[in-house]
Amino acid sequence: MNASAWNMLLEGAWTTVWISAVSIAIGVVAGLVIALIRLARIPIIDQLLVLYISVARATPLVTLALFIFLSAPDLGLDLNRSVAGILALTLNTTAFNAEIWRSAFRNFSREQSEAAMAIGMTPWVTFRRIMLPQMVITSLPGLVNEMSFLIKGSPAIAVIGIVDLTRVTNRISAVTYEPLPPILVAGALYMAIIGCLVWLQRLAERRANRLAM
Amino acid sequence: MSEANTSETAAVSIRHLSKSFDDVEVLRDVELEVKTGEVVTIIGSSGSGKSTLLRCINWLEKPDRGSIHIAGQRIGVHDDGRPMPVRELAKVRAQTGMVFQGFNLWPHLNVLHNVTEAPIHVQGKSKREAEELATALLEKVGMSQKHDSYPNTLSGGQKQRVAIARALAMQPAVMLFDEPTSALDPELVGEVLAVIKDLSAEGYTMVMVTHEMAFARAVSDQVVFLEKGLIIERADPETFFTTPKTDRVRKFLENHDTPSSA
Amino acid sequence: MSNWEILWDERAQFWSGFLSTLEIFGLSIMGAFVIGCGLLYLLEGSRKRLTTPLRIFIDGMRMLPFLILAYLLYYGLPSVGIRLDAWGAGVGALAVYHGCYFAEIFRGNRLTFPPGQIEAAQAHGFTKGKLFFRLLLPQIIMQTRPLLGNQLIYALKDTAFLVIITVGELTAAANSLSSTYFIPTEAFIVVIGFYWAISVTMEIIIKQCGRFSAKRGFDNV
Fold first, then answer.
1. Which keywords accompany this UniProt record (chain B) (predicted)?
2. Closest Cα in chain B to A109
């Protein structure tokens, strides 16, 4: 592989990383919002969210990406590829994150908030200072694990023509007629990215153990 | 019972308090007055309503009828029956410090920050001021070596002593102890009782639910016996433990360790 | 003619895509299951020369996207003289990839296995193979079934990646119908419905297995 092939691979890696990072950032927050809304148990809205989570978890990312990209014009939306890709990854990861956040809510003990209320905290301060920090710590290992899954699913956006770290190997071999080297390098780059997340997850787990009283 | 209206000066004043869970009456027309500097112990068998009574004082349980004043301020509802807005309720609650059976320390904060959390984020104290106060209180409960430890590394007795410091940090008008030693291994009970005893000697106002009879006798100014939600006996500790008026209390005391006047 | 009527007329295409997805999924998870059990058996041996590279292989697979493995088998292998068609490469990649996940799930459960049972079996003269197949494996499978169920759903979703290496399955059917008739929204809604139905069915089956397992007392060991 020559220098330009290496450059293309790094550009592909960058595309994978930034699109995934944006989707992760939106997905983590949106998952939290959905979990909070579900706490309120509003009829109809709650059922719709359950349906969304169930369908989104069962839909392959490839199918979702094609669906969003191809039917956006039908719905009068003008999405470029990157936005469609981010939307597909986000819709998918949000559903998983919502479940992770929700289980943290459910496992949060009443005694913890009682201790906060008894000392004179308002419900808002209790949420912000006591509940949310603990939920972040308990959810983080699961959230980071889901981030690894998102990276592993991200090659799906290649199907709508985004040149990510997987797709770029086709581009390179179209010129060099040697598909094996770029695929192996791409695999190594994925391992490096996901390796970082696995390491982060381990740190997060160690911190979460502190909460196990 | 003195019927004089002392609710302006009393640390806690409870009038006609009733509370039911579903259709079981757990508190029936309870009247209790705790003067500033006084230690009141609530005794009774399990299910007598003593924990509920304590939890009504800071409105963790909402009573059905009656009124509670903390240092002259009504808690939970206004005199015209309007429920208190959460901010106002939080302000009155800050006048009480509660120590729980299960400690309920916040596991995501270290010992020091467990104590400074409420002074900073409820009272708006500066970080420095809160930490000075916390350092002094942790010293008082014998935990000054553990500032940076997290709750999961502490023994039960240590956790409870930190929980006491946390409650004291708000400089409350009254301290509420809900069976503070029931969840402890027997050999750790002493260290927690010693701290509470020091507090009573320093003149803190306290209401305590406990099964430690000898301890109750040693520190209380007033002992209250609750049975099926009714206060059936109240007296100074000497009278209560040596010459109880009712058979029920006599039986109860026989079944518990007869306390020597420690 | 409404878009939905067009789709109804073309139902044969959906159906064959659906069957193709089911076939790929069924074959590959059977393969994955055998690979997972095989890896677990090999890991049982205490020879470090074998277990260390196996652990590295399993962990490595779990750090790769599935599509990279499919690319490797479909585009990469011909470079070393092995030529697979898209279908074979796809099923093979799915089986190996998810086989590694199965192996890791089994291994995690194996670590928590009480040693007393194994000692008891050894004391009764069980051979290594018998001990593995009659004692360890059935219990491990029953106890890990919720995790296996999750993994099956991931495997189902990964079958859709094969459209990228030109395998004609369910997503490919929607893709070709939507480009023939320009009705992507309806075509993909139908296909997503298919995937959802398969997932829900699998979840129900896993739950039923749970009842069976509880009855046999597998969960309390």
1. Amino-acid transport, ATP-binding, Cell membrane, Membrane, Nucleotide-binding, Transport
2. B104
Q: Name every residue whose Cβ is closer than 8 Å to that of residue A153 and which is 6 or more positions away in sequence.
A: A61, A89, A92, C65, C157
Q: Are B72 and B60 in contact (CB under 8 A)?
A: no
pLDDT of residue B262: 41
Inter-chain CB pairs, A–C, below 8 Å = 127
Q: Any CB–CB contact under 8 A between A134 and chain B? A: yes
Give chain B's residues under pLDDT 70: 1-8, 257-262
Cβ-Cβ contacts under 8 Å, A63 against chain C: 160, 170-171, 174, 188, 191-192, 195
Averages of pLDDT over each 10 residues, chain C, 221 residues: 80 89 95 94 82 92 95 91 92 96 93 83 83 86 88 94 89 86 86 93 87 69 43
**pTM of the entire structure?**
0.86
Chain C contacts of A187, Cβ < 8 Å? 64, 68, 72
* pLDDT band, residue A63 (cuts 50/70/90): very high
Do B105 and A115 count as a contact with CB atoms less than 8 A apart?
yes
Question: Does the CB of A50 have a partner CB in chain C at under 8 Å?
Answer: no
State ipTM. 0.90
User: Are A211 and B108 within 8 A, CB to CB?
Assistant: yes
Q: Which of A67, A156, A195 minimises the CB distance to C192?
A: A67
Task: Please write the tens of the pLDDT for every residue from A1-24.
Answer: 788 899 999 999 999 999 999 999
Six token digits for residue B260: 């020597």
Q: Is B135 exposed, middle or buried (0-12, 13-18, 19+ CB in 10 A)?
A: middle
Residue linked to tokens 């699109």: A19
Q: A27-41, A193-207, C70-84, C205-219: which has the minimum mean pLDDT?
A: C205-219
For residue C90, which phi and psi values (nearest 5 degrees)? -65, -50
For residue A19, how many C-alpha atoms fall within 13 Å in the half-sphere facing its CB? Answer: 29
Interface contact A158-C188, CB threshold 8 A: no
- In chain A, residues with a C-beta closer than 8 Å to the C-beta of B90 are 117, 120-122, 125
Report which DSSP code applies to B258. P
Query: C163-199 burial by CB neighbour count: b if 16+ within 10 A, else e?
Result: bbbebbbbbbbbbbbbeebebbbbbbebbbebbbebb
Q: Which two tokens stand for residue C74?
A: 């479909």
Quote the CA–CA distance of A149 and A160 in Å, as a whole number: 20
**pLDDT the model gives residue C101:** 96
